[in-house]
Amino acid sequence: MKNSGLRSAWLLLLLGLAQPGTAQPSASPPDSVVGAPVVRPWLTRPAVLRVAVPVVLVAAGYASRNENFLDEMKEEVREETRENFPHFRTSLDDYTRRVPLAAAYGLFAVGLKGERGVVPFSACFGLSHALSTGLVSNLKRISHTQRPDVAADFSSFPSAHTADAFLTATLLHEQFGRGRPWLSVAGYTVATATGAMRMLNDRHWLTDVVAGASIGFLSAETVWRLYPAVARLLPGHLGQKLLLLPTYAPGGTVGAVLVVR
Length: 261
Prior knowledge:
Elements: H1 2-17, H2 45-63, H3 69-84, H4 93-96, H5 99-109, H6 118-143, H7 160-177, H8 181-200, H9 206-233, H10 238-241, E1 242-249, E2 253-260
Antiparallel strand pairs: 1-2
Helix pairs in contact: 1-3, 1-9, 2-9, 5-7, 6-7, 6-9, 7-8, 7-9, 8-9
Domain Phosphatidic acid phosphatase type 2/haloperoxidase: 125-224
Signal peptide: 1-23
InterPro entries: PAP2/HPO, PAP2/HPO_sf
């Protein structure tokens, strides 16, 4: 079936985001050549693809606003979803987007060792959440995309719930999942389920969900990799003492609180 093939292809793209790069860097050869050029890890082909693929998916989602094959595809996926799950309703997706973050702090609480301490991890979460929220809110304003279930609501693209879910799943992967792949699989499974529920609830198009997943992933990866360099620029050990926490207020207002310990 043509429609089924389109749906399967785009769902595979979403699931592809849920596969973290767990390949370990290869060990240096024993007889290294002095003066040989050093290949920066962020310039390797896998690293470039990890950035390029999500960016392309966000661009494709934005392009689906116009009448083209992407717009037709998301309409077809929505029709099939409503046909197969006409009575699906849940508020579980409001909570699952935070599950990977809660799991990370739970692992801290039981004393599990990860890549960084709780303070740097919290700072990375606060900064990446601020970056993701800024990108999502501005894209919602610029794209002015109609939600599938409410004709008067033009804040569909991209999905903020899915962005949050993939952001927290990526941080869980980076903090604890490198040596424990099952944690990464669990985190990204919950994130993927969150995106699926946003579609089953008829709150988002498939392109909204894919773009949200891409933004959350990129925001977390960007901050996680830049944070050590930024922390080294701070005087003394201030980088280890800073704690940036997101704040929420009624009406959807998002802010941040900077704490020095």
